[in-house]
Amino acid sequence: MPDNTRRARDEAFWQTFADRYDVQPGPVNLENGYFGRMSRTVIEEYQRNIELINTSNSIYVRQRFEQHDNLEIRAQLAELIGVRAQSVALTRNATEGLQSLIRNYNRLQPGDQVLICDLEYDTVKGAMRWLAQQRGVEVIEITHHHPASFDSLLESYREAFTRHPKLKLMALTHVTHRTGLVMPVQAIAALAKEHGVDIILDGAHALGQIEFDLQALGIAFAGYNLHKWIGAPLTLGFIYIAPQRLADIDPDMGEMHYPVTDIRARTSYSTPNIPALMTLPLVFEEHDALGGAAAKSPRLNYLRNLWVSRVRHLPGIEVLTPDDPQLYCGITALRFTRHADQQAMAERLLSEFNLFTVVRTGAACGPCIRITPGLTTTAGEMEQLVHALNQLR
């Protein structure tokens, strides 16, 4: 058994990890997909940085941060994902970055088609529909068969590319926020390339939660968060543009603070959350010290499987996320089949069993309750979930 797989089951080890975090007494949080916790040491560093910026003000920022520290942080970020520093630009979150990539993609002509699916983030769908209004393109929306399989997902895109030869651009979500389905990005990207379709990848839930090689995926444009599974303060994300494709994304609304050859011109220029950015070197250090996604992913998958394996075949419960290891991560969704109102059931999980979850809607397979353990979640808390589901089903 690989070390990380063995460690994933080691409750004593993960308790020492959880001890680095301050957790408010109250419900068990099974909605860790919204944003992640910062460790106690990261919070302390963040607070020190707030004090430094408040006292030194623009003197430090102009003389040190803008000229040196910011560039070093960007280089560390690029190293984290195995790309060149010139191919990343910091944003406030993945959504901001994805909107910039979509609205500034310049290879569309009136009459072209763009593609979305039912599992995309609503803001991404909205941005693609905005293209229809502003560029005269047609939006094609597909729905994925349920239950999903590797082959069915790939076939959905193969059929779309064949049926709609005017497709030029598509959105693709690496880890879908509704059900936690992990899309076979590399296979879909290869298929899209055959048909001349570019992909803008939503990696908001992927970075830090699952292992991937960005360059091997064959993706030229992507947006990511740093505040979900990396452990950074809120308001931090970034975009990636493959260097050879930079010219296909225009500077954001004519941004002139950076040269047209600089990826940073593809984001809005404004005063960022400098103390949060200054905290990133410590965030990266702690992420790497734990073992990165290679350590986090097995733990989250282990916690997921503790409850899924116990309820998958129970009458009254439908687990919507498949068990193919290629297609799942820590996030997984379920539905109570004997109860129409999933929101009411989520409220009962909270009021009767002290378990906090969230309902997601918008997928063709219907409303669901999203279960997202975190890195401070224990096996015992998964047992609490199994008990609750048995009682409520």
Notes on the structure:
This protein is α/β, with parallel strands linked by helices and 393 residues long. It has two domains: 128 residues, Aspartate Aminotransferase, domain 1, CATH 3.90.1150; 240 residues, Aspartate Aminotransferase, domain 2. The chain has 13 helices and 13 strands. The strands form three sheets. It has a seven-stranded mixed sheet, with helices on both faces. A four-stranded antiparallel sheet has the order 9-10-13-12, covered by helices on one side.
Distance between the termini: 35 Å
Low-confidence stretches: none
Tell me the total number of β-strands. Answer: 13
Largest sheet, spatial ordering of strands: 2-8-7-6-5-3-4
Task: Determine and state the CATH class of the largest domain.
Answer: Alpha Beta
CATH topology of the largest domain: Aspartate Aminotransferase, domain 2
**Mean pLDDT across every amino acid position:** 96
Tell me, what's the shape? globular
* CATH architecture verdict of the largest domain: 3-Layer(aba) Sandwich
State the CATH superfamily name of the largest domain.
Type I PLP-dependent aspartate aminotransferase-like (Major domain)
For the biggest sheet, the summary is: 7 strands, mixed
The portion of residues assigned to helices is: 40-55%
H/E series, N to C? HHEHHEHEHEHEHEHEEHHEEHEEEH
Structural class, from helix and strand content? alpha/beta
Rg over CA atoms: 21 Å
The number of distinct helices, counting runs of at least 4 residues, comes to: 13
